[in-house]
Structures are given as C-alpha cells and as structure tokens.
Write a structure and sequence with these properties.
This protein is an alpha/beta fold. It has helices at about 5-15, 30-40, 55-60, 65-75, 125-135, 140, 155-165, 180-190, 205-215, 235-245, 265-280, 335-345, 355-365, 365-390, 415-425, 455-470, and strands spanning about 80-85, 90, 95-100, 105, 115, 175-180, 200-205, 220-225, 250, 280-285, 310-315, 330, 405-410, 425-430, 445-450. It has a seven-stranded mixed sheet, with helices on both faces. Strands 1-2 form a two-stranded antiparallel ribbon. Strands 3-4 form a two-stranded antiparallel sheet. The structure holds pyridoxal-5'-phosphate (PLP).
C-alpha cells in the first residue's frame, strides 16, 4: 500500500529549501529537487510514498507549477522518483543504492566509498592473537553465571592501573566496565540527570553525545570553542558554569572531538573549582587520551583536581584499539560505581565476558600498540594536511597535536552542500552542523585521519573537484551563517 505525503506536509519538511547554504546558486527547480533528495537521504521522507500532485505542491510552496514540474522531472532523471500517468509519482532511490534493513540507505557498492564520516581506526594486528588468548582464558569464567555488572576484576584492575600510571591513584572499585564510551555516557546521564536538567557542552562537540543528551531531554547550553589557540576561552567557560549553574557539564579535554584541542592543566584545575562552586557534575570524556602525537605531553587528568567527587571520567578502547570491541568504562567514586551498576541492571546487565578478556590482553600490550598507533596517525595526519594545503589552500585549520580528527574552516558556509556533493563522488563526510545545535557550523568540516594515506589523498582530490564545481556557481551568492561557533 502506498502512502501519500500532502502538499503542506512536504512544504513543512522542506522548510527553508530555497535558502539552504549553497542553494541560491541553483535555479529554483534544481534547489527543490536537491532538497527532496536530501530529505530522502536523511530518511526524513520515506521511500515509496506518493508525492503531492504538481499543482498541490506549487500551491503549498507558493511557487509556479512549472518549477515543481521541472523539479519532478529532475528527480525522475536522477532516479529519485517514479511516475505513472494518472497514478502519480513515488519516491525511490537510484538503482545504485539499496535500502538497508535499518531504513538507512547505503550505496550498494561501497568499495569505492571513502568514509570520512567515521573517525576510528581499523583493528590493530594484535587483536586476533588477543582474541585467541581470551578464548583460552574463558574456562576460568565458565563456572559462574557470567554477569559482572561492574566488569570482570582483571579488566577493572587493568583500567585502574592505567589511571594510576597517569598520576591519578585509582582502585578497581572505582571502575565500571561498560560496552563502549557511548554506553558509559548514557549510564552516567541516567544516573546524574533528571529530564530537563541543564547541561553545558562544548560547541562543536561529539554528535552522539548530543544525541544521548537529547534522549535524556537535557536542556543544552554551549560553550563555543575557538578554531585556533587553546580552543576553550577560560573566562567564558568559567562564566558559563558560574552563571548557568548547569546540573552537568560534558567536556572532551584530551584532543577534543572534533577540534583536536588539548585543555591546559591550569584550566582543568579552574574548571573543577568552578564546577564545585556551581554544584555542577563534570563528565569528562577521555576517548582520545592515549593518542597524543609528536610527543605532546599530557596535562594531568581532570579528576586529579577533584576533591569532592564532582568528576566522572569516561573512556574506552575504541580509539587506540578497536571500536568493534565495544569496551569502555567509567571512573568515579566507589559508591557512584555501585549506583551505576544498580542502574545498569535495568539496561543491559553487564558487558560480555569474552570481549572484556580480549581488552585485558590488549591492555597488557598497551605500550607497543599505542606507540604504533601514534606513529600511524601522525603520518596520516601529515599526509591529510599536505593534501589540503595543496588542493584546498583556502581551508584553514590548526594541526591537531593528538586524537584522530582535523577541524577545517571552509571558505564558505558550504559544509552540508559539500557533504551532499561529496557523496556523489564517493566520499562520505560528517558536515559541520552535525557537531552543533540548530544547524550552525556550516563553515566547518571534520576530517578524520584514520584511513590509509592513499585514501586520504584521494578523498581530498575528490573534495577539491567537487569544491570547484560549487565555486563555478558564484561565490557572491553564499550566505554567511547566522552563528559561527
Ligand atoms: C568523544 C567521543 N566519545 C565517545 C565516543 C564513542 O566511543 P565508543 O566507541 O567507545 O562508544 C567517541 C567515538 O567517536 C568519541 O569521539
């Protein structure tokens, strides 16, 4: 059965289609067609629905029927619309795309797609031997039920030792193993934030943290990071804590995602002091702490300055080891860990024992693994920076001293338009607005340097080609975004 979208509904979904960044260079019909394609790509307009008749949509959008006709014709030509005389027009995707069972669409032949949407490395060679060794260890656990809400003791010890080595004495009772850092964040939010609670985040920040906060119906306030320099403006950040008195602040002080900034020691200390005075709990995401590059020295962990159990640290194996392992953790006070474990049994009970054993074996080889990762990332970062300097010299960025992402300021508010155009040439991007609220950050793009050098160079070449096409349409017509964070 085919459902139908009415003219006013589609008009609402299309929103400001005629004024989207990079759109004004196009004739109206092309902008309308592109906006419909965008809705399809975002799953906001389902596949297989009947679009309004041309006259109905023209009335709803207050444009001419000729424009709608031309847009529908373009959509038919690009394979996004099927029409039958007398029966109407249905949404579809071009033959080269299939609909994945999740409702997301993915290109059928992904081999040539360079995915810069994901900032994570492939598994290290040590992973397979670690998995084999973990299987050998498993019999030690098979006599029990296998539920360990705070994690198996071996892994909690290994994680606690890691903190202690970083200068933050930690006992295994202060560690709860989770199924990834994202899971750690979700559990902490369940415990520490009532619906509607105020939360301060950096802008830009990690999109899935925003998603987790949205799921808790948090009231989100942002602290805008500068592109260069230290990133955080101490006065503004401390002022936001003092005046806003949020229930919680979520910060990524170690090679922030996406900017790569590293928060200096002095500011860490002042933030903890201001948070305590404001009654704010600090959730510190240490996802990238293992990945300083160029021998960059790490400041002490934020929790080092904590005297009042205000700081909850979260981290995991995804960035220095492998995302597919799904192992993360929370470091908090022992009573907080007990409360988190109690909350967790209503969510997922515990993390898989086998995966935790793999993590134990990988952490035992941490020095060798992270040394190799850092060298690999530094080479890839440099190759990416060189390619950008050569092919897209108008883009500005500060070379990150760690982490896995470079945050580029583009030469116009084109990030979403560029991401859509890039998809057509086999490069997947996470455009700037994904890292903020309310569609801002159109002048920015996050570029991870986690893929092999050849892929990064090819991706930049393709982006430069697409960028050139955008350019030909006339720069003068671009709008400046209302807010630049
Ligand atoms: C800042 C930050 N937090 C959390 C995560 C999610 O990590 P995990 O795979 O451990 O859930 C990521 C992954 O990109 C991240 O960048």
């Amino acid at each position: 059965m085919t459902s139908q979208v009415r003219g006013p509904q589609l008009a609402r979904l299309l929103g400001q289609w005629h004024a989207l960044p990079g759109r004004r260079r196009n004739p109206d019909y092309a902008a309308l067609a592109a906006a419909v394609r965008g809705l399809l790509a975002d799953s906001r307009l389902p596949l297989g629905v009947r679009l309004p008749a041309e006259r109905e949509l023209a009335d709803a959008l207050r444009i001419s029927r000729t424009t709608v006709s031309a847009a529908y014709r373009e959509l038919r030509e690009s394979g996004h619309l099927a029409s039958r005389r007398g029966a109407g027009s249905w949404t579809m995707l071009p033959g080269t795309h299939r609909v994945a069972s999740t409702g997301l669409w993915t290109p059928q032949d992904d081999r040539d797609m360079i995915d810069l949407g994901v900032a994570a490395l492939a598994a290290p060679t040590e992973l397979l031997p670690a998995a084999r060794a973990a299987a050998e260890d498993l019999p030690r656990y098979l006599g029990g039920a296998g539920y360990h809400p705070t994690g198996i003791i071996e892994l909690r010890e290994a994680v606690a030792d890691g903190y202690t080595r970083r200068g933050l004495p930690t006992s295994p009772e202060q560690i709860m193993v989770t199924s990834g850092t994202q899971h750690a964040l979700d559990l902490v939010l369940r415990l520490a934030l009532a619906p509607g609670g105020g939360v301060l985040v950096e802008s830009p920040t990690y999109p899935n943290a925003l998603a987790a906060l949205a799921a808790r119906r948090a009231r989100i306030a942002t602290h805008g990071l500068a592109l260069d320099g230290a990133g955080w403006d101490a006065d503004l950040l401390l002022g936001s804590l003092r005046q806003g008195r949020p229930k919680l602040a979520y910060l990524i002080p170690d090679f922030q995602n996406p900017t790569g900034h590293l928060m200096p020691a002095e500011l860490r200390e002042r933030v903890v002091g201001a948070a305590h005075a404001a009654g704010t709990d600090l959730v510190v995401d240490e996802s990238f702490v293992d990945l300083p590059l160029d021998g960059t020295a790490l400041p002490p962990p934020v929790a080092t300055f904590d005297r009042h159990s205000r700081v909850i640290s979260i981290g995991g194996m995804s960035k220095a080891y492998w995302g597919g392992l799904r192992i993360g953790w929370v470091r908090a006070s022992a009573p907080q860990v007990q409360r988190l474990a109690a909350a967790r049994v209503g969510v997922d009970m515990a993390s898989p024992v086998l995966d935790q054993l793999v993590a134990v074996h990988l952490l035992a080889e941490a020095p060798a693994i992270v040394t190799a990762r850092r060298a690999q990332l530094a080479a890839r970062r440099d190759a990416l920076a060189d390619a950008l300097a050569q092919r897209l010299p108008e883009w500005r960025f500060t070379l990150p001293r760690g982490g896995v992402t470079l945050w580029a300021e583009l030469d116009g508010p084109i990030s979403s338009a560029l991401a859509r155009a890039a998809e057509e040439v086999g490069v997947r991007l996470a455009p700037g607005p994904r890292f903020g609220l309310d569609g801002t950050l159109e002048r920015f793009l996050r570029l991870p340097f986690t893929l092999p050098v050849a892929d990064l160079i090819e991706a930049v070449a393709r982006l430069a080609a697409v960028r050139y096409d955008l350019n030909r349409a006339g720069r003068a017509q671009w709008r400046e975004p209302a807010v630049i964070a």
